[in-house]
Amino acid sequence: MKALVIEEFGGPEVIHLAELADLEPAPGEVRVRVSTVVVGRTKDIATRAGRPPFAEQVPRFPHVLGSEHAGVVDAVGPGADPALIGRRVAVSAVLSCGDCRACRDRREEACSSFGLIGIHRQGSYAHSCVVPQSNVSLLPDDVPFAQAAALAGNGPVARAQLDAGHVGRGSNVLVIGAAGSLGATAASLAGFRGAHVIGVDRLSVKPGCMDGLPLLAALDGDAEDLADSIREVTDGWGVDCVIDNLGIPAVWHKYRETLADMGRIVVSGAISHEPLPMSLLPFYLHSQSLIGVRTGNRTEITALWRDVADGFRIPEAFVDARPWETVGDAHRAVEAGVSRGQAVLEVGD
Description:
Blueprint: E1 2-6, E2 16-19, E3 29-38, H1 41-48, E4 63-64, E5 69-76, E6 88-91, E7 94-95, H2 101-104, E8 115-116, E9 128-132, E10 136-138, H3 145-164, E11 172-176, H4 181-192, E12 196-201, E13 217-220, H5 226-233, E14 239-244, H6 249-255, E15 259-267, H7 281-285, E16 289-292, H8 298-309, E17 319-323, H9 327-336, E18 342-346
Parallel strand pairs: 11-12, 11-14, 12-13, 14-15, 15-16, 17-18
Antiparallel strand pairs: 1-2, 1-4, 3-5, 3-9, 3-18, 5-6, 6-10, 7-8
Family: Belongs to the zinc-containing alcohol dehydrogenase family.
Catalytic activity: a primary alcohol + NAD(+) = an aldehyde + NADH + H(+); a secondary alcohol + NAD(+) = a ketone + NADH + H(+)
EC number: 1.1.1.1
């Protein structure tokens, strides 16, 4: 089979096409003929650059990147369900032991042996990928593969964030970086739940970048009066939940004071590594919470595909499908923060 591989760490230029041996699924595994695969900043780009997340060990070379993906099952291993052959599926990247305390509590994202397809084992920048059967979800016939990969990549963690933030109908939700892959998914899913969604992104640099999202208001994160705008949009109450995956100190200081009583700030993968100075006093005085969500677990994955069956989709403008031959350009766009929504590679014949 053909695959995009890396044989050393470096820039996008280290990714190249190679011929690899065909894969055979082991017991409990299935083989997916890959149609589309997401390009992830935290997973693919960090690993390619030599900063693999959640990994004490580095991948063995040659290594195939690629986490969440979508395609068709074309083979199953011993003990796996043969009825899956020929079925359209989306694939989660989360690998867990199934036996530790976290797994027994159905919190696989906190597994002591947590791993990811594309980092801890060979990934899906390839014609085929072998995965545990428990990682595949059947797709409705009307969900295109590019949409499916984007949903698999961001839907479960977005759902976990909204659940952690107690977001429901009528909630005021502030999404920082709403034009990005996870931000756009969280904003769309919050709108699907009936929440009042306020998107924040760099409108001064990327005008119209949030167009197409179900927003009550689109605000510029660079604006000095961001806090005043948030209060105006929420009639002075403030926001019940903030989804912040960026962790930019200048933006934090602007929105922090607008968090309502009993409000929750939920973070997953702060892109900025700058420390955020904060006072603990307001958290207890106003019954507020700061919550970290690592990723979606199997409960959230199952619930996400129920949402999809009920009609949830990421707006098409936020699914950026590209031929896999342009993988270098896709990596550069995501790394520079100029891509809109989720970059997805369409795997060639």
